[in-house]
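Researcher: Next entry in the queue.
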Amino acid sequence: MAGTDASLTRSPVSGQTSGAVGMRTAAYDTWRAVTGAQLVLPEAGVYEVVADVQAGQIMVGSVNNAYMQTRLFDVTAGAVVPLTVRTVLFLSATPSDGVTHTIQATASAAALYRVAGPATIRVEGLKHVDSGTTTDEAMWAQNFRFKKISD
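Model: Structure for this entry, 151 residues:
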């Protein structure tokens, strides 16, 4: 069938991975790579990139405006993938001193993203607290994937 549409059919360009990072030692308001959640977009084109992310945070006592965010970051370009910053979890106040609070939540960061050639994309996480202290945080990219949708 040389020369027909059937002979020009290409296999889909796609991939997926997962990863996790403990963020206890990370400084507040600093983006940190989610270990293992990194993919290579293998060729030029437009890709759908999606990360399903879960975050967990433990707080003891009063904490105000504690949140965790995620984003997709293009390591090759040294830039955030536009429109991918998401707040995964947010707690405005925990008023009880001496009480341990644990919160977990999930969010998806997704975008259509054009690259000019091969590009490495990763999931990053950030933790923030206005006042008080968190005792532990973690972030998981349960399913980080891409699919090429056009040249």
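Model: The CA atoms of residues 42 and 118 lie 5 Å apart.
Researcher: Noted, moving on.
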